[in-house]
Amino acid sequence: MRAMVFTAPNTVEMLDVAVPTIAEGDVTITVRAAGICGSELHGIRHTDFRKPPLVMGHELAGVDQDGRRVTVNPLLSCGMCDRCSANEEHLCRGRLIIGIHRPGAFAETVVVPKASVYEIPDSMTFETAAMVEPLANAVHALRLADPAAGSRIAVLGAGTIGLVSLLVALEYSMDVTVCDLSESRLKTALELGAIRSSTELTGEYDLIIDAVGAESTHRTSVERLRPGGTAVWIGLLSSSTGFDGQEIVRDEKRVLGSYCYTRSDFERALSLAEHTPLDWTTRFPLELGATIFTELMDGRQDVIKALLCPAPGPVKTRSLV
Amino acid sequence: MRAMVFTAPNTVEMLDVAVPTIAEGDVTITVRAAGICGSELHGIRHTDFRKPPLVMGHELAGVDQDGRRVTVNPLLSCGMCDRCSANEEHLCRGRLIIGIHRPGAFAETVVVPKASVYEIPDSMTFETAAMVEPLANAVHALRLADPAAGSRIAVLGAGTIGLVSLLVALEYSMDVTVCDLSESRLKTALELGAIRSSTELTGEYDLIIDAVGAESTHRTSVERLRPGGTAVWIGLLSSSTGFDGQEIVRDEKRVLGSYCYTRSDFERALSLAEHTPLDWTTRFPLELGATIFTELMDGRQDVIKALLCPAPGPVKTRSLV
Fold first, then answer.
1. Is the pLDDT of residue A321 over 50?
2. Which of A170, A312, B75, B212 is the most exposed place for a label (fewest CB within 10 A)?
3. CATH fold of the domain at B137-257
């Protein structure tokens, strides 16, 4: 089958690869839409976390072997460790992610555990269904922060995770400010319901979601909190923490890391997706995957969320290159 | 009256000063014990937060003008700002602290608002009553973290705040490890109920209280958490955050700043103090204040908590120097 493969640092290639093997409990899905995640654009600069050769892609929707229209929770947990026992399966000691630790969805087909598959409503497009995974990240982040009604919320970054964080934040509060350097992304944020947009965050907030994770956004996420406020970090751009370690004590601020989602967060995201505006994605044929991925990586392509969409129809099987 | 005065960077002196003026709602207290706080030892290196000339001292017990044996909550709030309205009076926009923003208790007498005074039980010594303030810091920190029963807790630092954190942590969990570089302080921690003591923290914890606030303890407080664990920072030694900003996301850890206490935390500390071992303090006559303070500051004096105790009896009034 055709797949976009991470083959070496900074390199993805369209290749013919073997259809993944099916083990007991697995199911084959014909991919109809698979989103390119910012973590993949950054992640392929090194070969430590994601190891080439690898078919990436963990945001996906498609049709399973029984003809059901589905999306997939790509986070696999052992179900037995202390974190799984504490209903924190996203922090599982042996957690694996489809598209990172096993072949993902930038391909004509992907094989996933049957238990990870969720049927989607007839009315939901594959494009929307592929957005349930990023949306689940935002559901989780906001649940961790649990802002009081009427909270002043700011979101740093108007990429995919920033915008889905905005959409979920609007479920908690109408007062959501979005900050980004791109005026066109800020325009999308305002169209989606942000009350304010800015290229530099001013004022004071009860809750700030850092969907970037740069040193500067880490700093801003703490500095712009009111005393006693909460910063939630989802972005993974930098290891630098940026903020003043004494300020967090004197003003009793909180910094919460947020990683992925639990199964119930994923299910809530699937339910939310039915009435949430998620139609700001851009489709590309799978065959253009390597070009689009490389352009996004190099900053030459400005779409917020690119979805790679294999042409519908029977899956072609070819020999492994 | 005699008082120990912060007169210039790194300098405290015993002086004759005027008895503080009494305004409406104030009460005069004859000081019987006043603890020297680590924040004062570090704080007088600069003149930005505490401004000389200043009588410091915010941990105190004594006798009020009606002869009642009392301790004092030194944190004064406006009662009107957004933080006070949210029952976060310790984060009051106009908060003032006795011994920082108005004359404190390293003196024969101190004048405080009547509303800040708490009568102490007959059975409680002045030495114990002066420890209610540091104890309240620990009550607050543990309340913020709210560890589950049976949690593995570590406390970094076996100074006063570390040891009171240990004592309050024992109310939540029997599994408390204390870490410090001083073997004699670790011995005290074990005597007070720590299950384990160490000069270097190993293993994995649900909750880590950083009662030091150095770059190295900030780092350790995050690194040694289990996935999903919580670090509470009370110490104020350094602005350096020390930890990896990506680790906090990938392992979904939390860093909570903790500052002072609310009125109810202070009242809970007063109640806890009745049955909590707080007799590891050391008394010094007020007249030795400048010597002891300077020795503590320079690391030539190893007592964990020095209490300055003016000789009981009528307050001598002398002319201002």
1. no
2. A312
3. Rossmann fold (3.40.50)
